[in-house]
């Protein structure tokens, strides 16, 4: 049997033809091609499936996966055979052709079970420079001082068996919930390098959704307050300040 790939790249799609080309190109041009690309589609009716069908290389398409983004991401994890799993949504793309090669080298050198880096945000046609990646600690993660952007995260597949996958009951903070569980078992390597670009669609998130997202994040972080109670207290100060600002905007 052939050896499993180093990376399983999971891309969730739903009528994604307008942006998917950038995702596909950024994966196809990686200098490291020790990958499988898993597409999880929710029932696209535009050209998305045609684009995936024409995409060369090692790929797998899961059709008709409905029930939300967390369920789609979990289906991708379950189908993965690679050593490390990354979720690169159809709105996102790798920052350059050396991303996977650099990640592989860093993971080998650090011997960590997962890694995260920085993302640039593409908004109104312009790239916004990323925040520097801070030194990781569980305290910093639990207090909200460390931000882990999902398009720049790579997780050893076997770690999901220990930590579990995305909580499909969550709508906004499923990634934060997973990072807190992963970090409690194994601290990640923090790579101060831009790994991916995230598209920020103007007007795609209403003020009401931002408030609900913050509320859900608060509930998620409260689940784990026992692991770092002082950090949770510091997060609460940030939370109430941000909520006041969001409510004024709403």
What does this structure look like?
This protein starts with 6 loop residues before the first strand and ends with a helix. The chain is α/β, with parallel strands linked by helices and 250 residues long. It has helices spanning 17-28, 48-54, 69-79, 99-110, 138-143, 157-163, 174-185, 207-223, 229-249; strands spanning 7-13, 35-41, 59-62, 84-87, 93-94, 114-123, 126-128, 153-156, 189-199. Strands 1, 2, 3, 4, 5, 6, 7, 8 and 9 form a nine-stranded mixed beta sheet that branches. The radius of gyration is 18 Å and the shape is globular. Mean pLDDT is 93; it is low at 203-207. Residues 8-97 form the Glycosyltransferase 2-like domain.
The CATH superfamily appears as Spore Coat Polysaccharide Biosynthesis Protein SpsA, Chain A
One letter per element, helices H and strands E, the order comes to EHEHEHEEHEEHEHHEHH
Structural class: alpha/beta
Number of strands: 9
Overall, the morphology is globular
Q: Can you name the CATH architecture?
A: Alpha-Beta Complex
The domain count comes to 1
GO molecular function, one term: hexosyltransferase activity
Domain Glycosyltransferase 2-like: 8-97
Pfam families: Glycos_transf_2
InterPro entries: Glyco_trans_2-like, Nucleotide-diphossugar_trans
